[in-house]
Amino acid sequence: MLTTLTQKFRIWLFRPKIESGTVTLNQRRIFILPTRQGLGFAFVLLLMLLGDINYNLSLGYVLTFLLGTTAMMTMLHAFRNMAQLEIRAGRVDAVFAGDAAQFVFHFHNSGRLPRYHLQLRDNNGHSVAFDVPAQQNAEVKLPLPAAQRGWLGSGRLTLFNEFPLGLFHAWSYLEFDTRCLVYPKPAAPTPLPASSAQSGMDILSATGDEDFAGLRSYVAGDALPRIAWKALAREQGLQVKQFSAQQGRELWLDWFLLPALAAERKLEILTRWVLDADVQGLHYGLRLPDIELPPDHGAAHRAECLRALALFGLGENPLPRLQERVARSAGRGQA
Question: Domain boundaries in the chain?
Fold first, then answer.
């Protein structure tokens, strides 16, 4: 209950603002308060001052005010350790549900002094510590758990430090317009849909130049670049590399081919099929209740299918992105 009230008070006091581009930390963005150790140190100084006044200790006054001045200097160092830092959010690669999303932030220190013991933390306690050398850049990765598919935002982050003596806590709030796409968690290895001539899912293999298919014995007339020299070096005889190309009709990964299962379970199976079909170099398409991606292959098609699975039923249809990609390809063909 106390934690919830504290968070609500912070949101009210420090109103969140989603930012894009580069953020520079100035005096209006940095807040400072004493830590528990700082409050304890101040209490000790107060007791020392009372003793100095009571016993009229000249050297006691010197020591008390010297320690007090040192404490004030540590507050200045805590502020300067963050002042004028430039921060921008980097690109975040998509992950699968259950993995950790690596949110990337770029820090630029234009000053002549290095910045020590900085920490970046989210509201759930996930944090990373780092330094930023003088007049250099630092790439910081904050791992956040991706529990479920869809979009995962970094949320409100706190950049803070207690350098150099831990007497003062200096912090600033950051909230960037950056997010990570989380794919459904792949199911356990599941056989691809059975080949069927009626459903157009049979794949034929023919000799070609696309995928490595194994080795065979050398035959007079084989091209020298096809000879497996590494196998010859291992004293396995003279062998030639074989390659295969995928031909025939396409493989459809169809939502409606699956039995009556929970929607998330179906998405996990389809994710596994997409990954397996991509590894095998198949020409495959994806059919969902609200979208159909025509058969294709390659890394771009794999990413488009996984995106469709990640956003299924979440109110964001990836079909416009697919249409833009098709239109660009058509334009290049006409050119």
Answer: 15-183, 185-200+251-329, 203-248
